[in-house]
Q: What sequence folds into this?
């Protein structure tokens, strides 16, 4: 199944499960978890079922298109179900079947992963799912988001779309994955990976990203004070991306790292608290 | 699913022959039935399983015993998807022993006219008794009502729901979660509960879940629900699926599978798979182990062994294969959970992934080698050791400066000293290498590789490579590795104690207990002098954050010495009281203290030791009454012959005893000490009063006692701590 059809298939599968099918957020982020539909969706008392594709930026994972598995930009398919249903594992396996994977032919394993996003102040317990040892999905029961204990536990499923496609086709290199019948992933993304890696590792302006981090942090705090939490959260996303870029450029020393992380987490916490009190005001 | 016929499940696995026929149905007329509890979960973390199973068995046994229940055997098992408790031949009826329960006082229990009060009836109601069952008992606080409950019989089935419910709540796991809106927490979601007592279900709940007689087998891919008429049906279903419930059996099977897979390629599994815990982990990742052999690109054999093993173990949990001579082969063994239908496709994907991982590792290896350790040693200034203590670069420099103090004590040659200093300066540098960032467990090991690649001497490279040891039973083997290991751990301990971080009870986030244990272990291996005061004197000026914290240093030293109580001593293991006696006079040299412990232990209960101990004890006891610290002995004040004799003996022997102690001949020193003083001291106490009214005379006699006591105790051990003195075997002879 080509990648474009895989996305459609997952959309249909999760739509049948009652999910709202959203679009990617139009900002750089390190994971689908940062999409407001997950960050805020996991908070508060209301049920929430959502699925969407989210392109992700991991500047330090760039390999100039030389590694068959690692990329500085890739696609996640993200599902969040709140409350988490009792048959979540089976739903996930059914979604693999829907994607044309004959799971009985393979070795499918749920291997412990205590997931944590220190910048989002979020953690949960779950697994990385191995398909014949290919780590293709992350599976997490959220316990805390934005430093707040969740009221209802959400289950988050994050598929590595390229990896699922690679696996379904029995391929060894992500760049060989067919996007459509005529176009490969490599034709679309090999060049962007090469250029992106060079940018992240050698060219990105360190002062620019340092300034952006500081400026966005200040802006976010200002917006929070003005009770504009969604724009404030967008500035947090910019901080997070600036931090990742600085990291790839080797501009974050080990001792700087915790301070950067804490600054982002502080914003995340303020956003989460603002979101929850806003909910209180509405009801 | 066919329902098994009654009695079909009466197979009781190897649990002895019962002459009496019994059914599995618990009733007053049949006496025993098996109890089975299964907690069905989504995949539990491998590292939790062993302990969870142990808790289930231990707490289950404890609860049953507390309830007075009797049974033949109790066992617990676990796989990633289930925790199982099996109690065999649980007796249907058990006896509660008679008890007497104290109630209210007589005054509170009865009105003046002798009628029971509300206090008494309330007490009886809560304890299930009647007025007829009470009696009055005179206690030291007055007269009290006691409820006397006779021994009685109880149906075991009646207590099981409550008991199993409690058992569920007693399993404590390191990290727990919620998964629904109940308050229930566990390591991963519980999805089913099976609880059977013979053929009857036991009703318990976990959050929103209710127990039943259904188990799920076949793994998440092909789950099959099996309704169990009795525990025997469960055992049958598990066996049919090939599920190995017992961790040890699973591990044994994996050992066999891995060994025979390696043998196909005329190799053996890399021994690190066993020693570094990989096989233990694998055993708790599967319930139906199946093995296969895969290949990887031989170009990656150029990577250091440790890197290959880490790459294989960390992401895919696959086992490396080597020749009998120890060279790695371009093959690996994977262990799967159940046999997949397309094993070739599975193998190929494992191979792709491993090759991709190794490609990354090769990239890291090449990048890091170009950078060289000398460059990294500067970059490590960006790595914080602790914010109040400083960076890793500063730690490296402190270690280098401190190394002289150890080199002196150990009488290292100038070349050795210089190599040690160099190793110190590079010891933490590999922390900034991409390889160690990717595989933190390779710290030190990569430093060694990069040092060697940069042309450092073998001694320097080995020292860097070994300094995080001892770990997992492996100790540093080279002298400089041992030196660096001690220096690093000493600096860590002294540093944390100086900023007020000390381990307490089970709170030890910085691993200080292990560091102190490491110092003891390595010091004993080296057996060269180790004066902690000398190290501290050299260390403190290097640590601005520790200025004026001499007391913290003393506590750190005390902490290191206290590890002698838990040290893994060579046989015969020293008795606790022997260790306590030496710790009461620890001195400053750790190795010296350890040698004294071994020497005293070797004396056992020899009469020589007992005599010496008696001398220490008697002088110790009389000195306890002294109000002031006695000054020196004034020989002109010695009046009585026995005290003169004692003093003469002291003057005659003190040099020799001190010499023997100085030479480390503790057995001889002890023998001589006992010989020299036991008899004259006996005469002294027989004939001379110490606590006389004349203060000068009294002080002088106390001073004599003090001189005799400390001659031994200050440099060997405070023998008054020895248990062999209580009761004293000498009271009859001496």
A:
């Amino acid at each position: 199944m080509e990648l474009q059809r895989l996305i459609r298939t997952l959309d249909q599968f999760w739509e049948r499960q009652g999910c709202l099918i959203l679009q990617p957020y139009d900002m750089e982020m390190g994971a689908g978890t940062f999409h407001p539909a997950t960050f805020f969706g996991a908070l508060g008392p209301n049920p929430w079922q959502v699925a969407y594709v989210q392109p992700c930026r991991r500047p330090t994972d760039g390999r100039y298109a030389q590694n068959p598995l690692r990329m500085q930009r890739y696609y996640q398919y993200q599902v969040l179900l709140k409350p988490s249903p009792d048959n979540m594992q089976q739903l996930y396996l059914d979604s693999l079947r829907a994607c044309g994977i004959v799971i009985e032919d393979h070795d499918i394993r749920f291997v412990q992963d205590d997931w944590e996003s220190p910048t989002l102040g979020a953690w949960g317990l779950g697994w990385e799912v191995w398909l014949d040892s290919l780590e293709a999905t992350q599976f997490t029961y959220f316990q805390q988001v934005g430093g707040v204990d969740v009221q209802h536990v959400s289950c988050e499923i994050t598929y590595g779309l390229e990896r699922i496609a690679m696996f379904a086709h029995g391929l060894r290199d992500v760049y060989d994955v067919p996007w459509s019948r005529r176009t490969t992933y490599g034709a679309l993304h090999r060049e962007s990976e090469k250029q992106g890696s060079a940018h992240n590792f050698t060219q990105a302006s360190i002062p620019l990203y340092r300034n952006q981090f500081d400026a966005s942090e200040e802006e976010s705090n200002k917006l929070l004070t003005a009770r504009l939490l969604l724009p404030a959260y967008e500035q947090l996303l910019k901080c997070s991306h600036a931090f990742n870029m600085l990291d790839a450029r080797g501009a974050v020393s080990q001792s700087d790292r915790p301070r950067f992380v804490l600054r982002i987490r502080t914003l995340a916490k303020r956003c989460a608290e603002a979101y929850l009190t806003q909910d209180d005001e509405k009801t | 699913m066919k329902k098994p016929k009654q009695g079909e499940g009466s197979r009781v696995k190897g649990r002895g022959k019962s002459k009496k026929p019994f059914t599995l149905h618990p009733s007053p007329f049949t006496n025993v039935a098996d109890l089975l509890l299964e907690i069905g979960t989504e995949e539990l973390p491998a590292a939790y399983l062993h302990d969870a199973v142990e808790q289930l068995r231990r707490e289950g046994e404890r609860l049953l015993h507390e309830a007075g229940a009797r049974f033949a055997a109790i066992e617990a098992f676990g796989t990633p998807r289930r925790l199982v408790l099996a109690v065999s031949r649980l007796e249907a009826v058990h006896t509660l022993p008679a008890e007497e329960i104290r109630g209210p006082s007589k005054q509170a229990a009865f009105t003046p006219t002798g009628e029971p009060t509300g206090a008494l009836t309330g007490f009886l109601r809560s304890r299930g008794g009647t007025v007829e069952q009470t009696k009055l008992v005179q206690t030291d606080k007055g007269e009290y009502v006691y409820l006397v409950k006779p021994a009685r019989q109880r149906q075991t089935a009646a207590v099981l729901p409550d008991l199993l419910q409690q058992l569920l709540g007693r399993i404590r796991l390191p990290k727990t979660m919620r998964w629904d809106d109940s308050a229930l927490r566990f390591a991963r979601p519980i999805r089913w509960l099976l609880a059977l007592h013979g053929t009857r279900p036991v009703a318990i709940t976990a959050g929103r879940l209710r127990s039943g007689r259904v188990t799920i087998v076949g793994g998440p891919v092909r789950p099959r629900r099996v309704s169990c008429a009795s525990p025997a049906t469960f055992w049958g279903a598990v066996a049919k699926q090939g599920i190995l419930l017992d961790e040890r059996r699973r591990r044994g099977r994996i050992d066999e599978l891995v060994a025979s897979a390696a043998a196909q390629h005329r190799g053996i599994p890399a021994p690190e798979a066993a020693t570094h815990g990989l096989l233990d982990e694998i055993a708790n990742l599967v319930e139906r182990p199946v093995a296969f052999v895969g290949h990887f690109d031989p170009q990656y054999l150029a990577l250091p062994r440790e890197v290959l093993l880490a790459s294989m173990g960390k992401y895919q949990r696959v086992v490396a294969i080597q020749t009998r001579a120890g060279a790695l082969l371009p093959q690996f063994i994977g262990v799967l959970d159940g046999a997949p239908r397309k094993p070739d496709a599975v193998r190929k994907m494992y191979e792709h992934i491993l090759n991709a991982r190794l490609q990354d590792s090769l990239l890291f290896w090449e990048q890091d080698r170009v950078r060289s350790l000398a460059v990294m040693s500067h970059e490590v200034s960006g790595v914080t050791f602790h914010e109040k203590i400083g960076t890793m670069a500063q730690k490296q420099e402190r270690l280098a400066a401190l190394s002289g103090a150890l080199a002196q004590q150990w009488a290292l040659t100038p070349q050795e000293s210089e190599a040690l200093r160099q190793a110190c300066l590079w010891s933490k540098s590999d922390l900034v290498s991409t390889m160690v960032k990717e595989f933190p467990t390779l710290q030190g090991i990569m430093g060694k590789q990069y040092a060697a690649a940069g042309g450092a001497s073998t001694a320097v490279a080995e020292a860097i490579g070994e300094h995080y040891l001892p770990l997992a039973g492996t100790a540093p083997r080279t002298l400089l590795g041992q030196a660096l290991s001690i220096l690093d751990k000493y600096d860590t301990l002294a540093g944390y104690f100086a900023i007020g971080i000390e381990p307490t009870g089970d709170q030890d986030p910085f691993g200080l207990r292990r560091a102190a244990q490491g110092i003891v272990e390595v010091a004993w291996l080296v057996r060269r002098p180790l004066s902690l005061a000398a190290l501290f004197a050299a260390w403190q000026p290097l640590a601005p954050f520790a200025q004026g914290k001499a007391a913290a240093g003393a506590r750190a030293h005390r902490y290191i010495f206290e590890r002698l109580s838990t040290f893994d001593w060579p046989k015969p293991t020293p008795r606790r009281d022997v260790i306590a006696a030496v710790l009461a006079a620890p001195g400053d040299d750790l190795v010296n203290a350890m040698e004294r412990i071994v020497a005293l232990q070797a004396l056992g209960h020899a009469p020589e030791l007992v005599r010496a101990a008696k001398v220490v004890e008697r002088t110790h006891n009389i000195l306890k009454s002294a109000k002031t610290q006695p000054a020196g002995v004034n020989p002109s004040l010695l009046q009585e012959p026995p005290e003169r004799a004692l003093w003469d003996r002291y003057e005659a022997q003190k040099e020799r005893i001190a010499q023997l102690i100085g030479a480390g001949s503790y057995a001889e020193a002890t023998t001589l000490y006992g010989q020299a003083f036991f008899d004259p001291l006996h005469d002294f106490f027989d004939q001379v009063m110490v606590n006389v009214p004349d203060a000068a005379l009294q002080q002088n006699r106390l001073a004599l006692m003090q001189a005799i006591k400390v001659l031994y105790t200050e440099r060997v051990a405070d023998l008054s701590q020895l248990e062999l003195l209580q009761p004293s075997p000498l009271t009859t002879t001496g």
Observations:
- The domain at 376-568 of chain B is CATH 1.10.3210 (Hypothetical protein af1432).
- The CA atoms of residues 45 and 80 of chain B lie 7 Å apart.
- The longest helix of chain B spans residues 343-379.
